[in-house]
Write a structure and sequence with these properties.
The chain has 392 residues and is an alpha/beta fold. It has 15 helices and 14 strands. The protein is 42% helix and 19% strand.
């Protein structure tokens, strides 16, 4: 079914994403409305680069553009068993500093709600903006001034469309209660993918696996590997013609490893970014600018070519969604600090405007989330398929 490498056919499902994001250097926004840089500083809190490469580099990049106005603070990796005191303590420290007026959480990992509550208790006028919460959307939205997230319905639809183009017979979704039971966003992902598989005659398999926050990364990765073996042994999975997908960022390289081992399919990744999963497993060289997805595509192709025995097929998300959300968040926070009278619902309109200015692609969408007045969902299609052909 699967063939050995000779060439990589990159099917640009939406080539516009490369055209918009494939330029070297950092993108310069052309604002629909004048942008005022406030006197108060903004802190961007990020996990380490190893956990979220695109968030980390997007934060560093925009801080370089506004060195007197933006400070990036890194907190400990949250993929394993953690206490969360790092992000909470940093939030309290920033809130207590009169030079700062806002905190952006990029992305909003575990304990972000507790961190926001702590910051607000120290300084109730500190502005907070959370990007892509891992916790319950409702809980984060109740405590943060604004929330930006991916439009998971659009994302899930494109995932299934991509799986269909890849010729998948099965779709295996791995997750656990902290995501699908306690977070409405991930619960939606599960539902959308399930329905999409049914509509496209793809056999859907949901597997509950161990949460790395509870057992650690290594144990979670081992459990996922054992789970796939069990699917074959129990004949729930009767073909290698299957997509492997997980809602957890910690196991993305493991999914790639399994796709390589069994000649399966991997759609990247748990959140729409090019820089988790494939990038980690193949150790592809990241470009100087995360917006240069063309350079990254080429580096990834070169890294994959080193293994002439691979039988896997990969789908890479090529739009820089995390970078767009970080930059859009900064410009929105600048507006909020410069104009204290900018409040809901007008604030949502301004935030949507800033996000669309930043996105700079026609098919990018930014809309108010139905479930909360202060949440915006964003998406831009952008999957490309790495397909391998027989060596002649």
């Amino acid at each position: 079914m699967f063939k050995k490498i000779i060439s990589v056919l990159l099917i640009g499902i939406l080539v516009f994403s490369f055209a918009a994001c494939g330029k070297k250097g950092e993108k310069k926004e052309k604002f629909s409305e004048e942008l005022t840089v406030p006197e108060k500083k903004t802190a961007i809190l990020v996990a380490p680069e190893a956990q979220y490469p695109e968030y980390y580099n997007a934060a560093k990049s925009i801080a370089e553009a506004y060195p007197d106005n933006i400070v990036v603070r890194e907190y400990p990796d949250t993929r394993g068993v953690v206490t969360g005191t790092g992000i909470i303590d940093i939030s309290a420290e920033i809130a207590a500093d009169p030079e700062f007026g806002a905190i952006i959480y990029a992305g909003a990992t575990l304990y972000t709600t507790a961190a926001i509550k702590k910051a607000k208790s120290v300084n109730d006028s500190i502005i907070t903006l959370a990007i892509e919460p891992e916790q319950s959307m409702g809980t984060v939205a109740e405590n943060s001034d604004l929330v930006f997230c991916a439009d998971w319905e659009k994302y899930a639809k494109e995932i299934i469309d991509t799986a269909k183009k890849m010729g998948a017979e099965y779709f295996v979704l791995y997750s656990y209660d902290r995501h699908v039971a306690n977070n409405p966003l991930y619960a939606q992902v599960k539902r959308y993918i399930s329905v999409g598989c049914e509509e496209n005659d793809i056999k859907y398999i949901f597997q509950t696996v161990k949460d790395p926050v509870s057992v650690g990364i290594n144990a979670a990765q081992y459990d996922l590997k054992s789970s796939l073996v069990a699917l074959f042994d129990n004949r729930k999975l009767e073909s290698n013609n299957a997509v492997l997908f997980s809602t957890d960022p910690a196991v993305q390289p493991t999914l790639v490893e399994l796709a390589e081992k069994y000649g399966m399919m991997y759609i990247s990744p748990s959140f729409p970014t090019a820089y988790n999963g494939l990038c980690e497993y193949f150790d592809a060289k990241k470009p100087e600018s995360m917006l240069d997805t063309e350079a990254y595509k080429n580096a990834l192709t070169e890294a994959i070519f080193k293994d002439s025995e691979t039988k896997a097929t990969y789908a890479l998300y090529t739009y820089t969604m995390e970078s767009t959300l970080v930059r859009g968040a900064v410009y929105t926070v600048f507006d909020m600090l410069s104009d204290p009278e900018l409040i809901l619902p007008g604030l949502i309109d301004r935030a949507v405007l800033r996000l669309k200015d930043t996105a700079d692609v026609k098919k990018f969408t930014a809309e108010k989330y139905i479930g909360a007045d202060n949440v915006i969902e964003c998406y831009a299609p952008g999957f490309a398929i790495h397909e391998y052909e027989e060596k002649k």
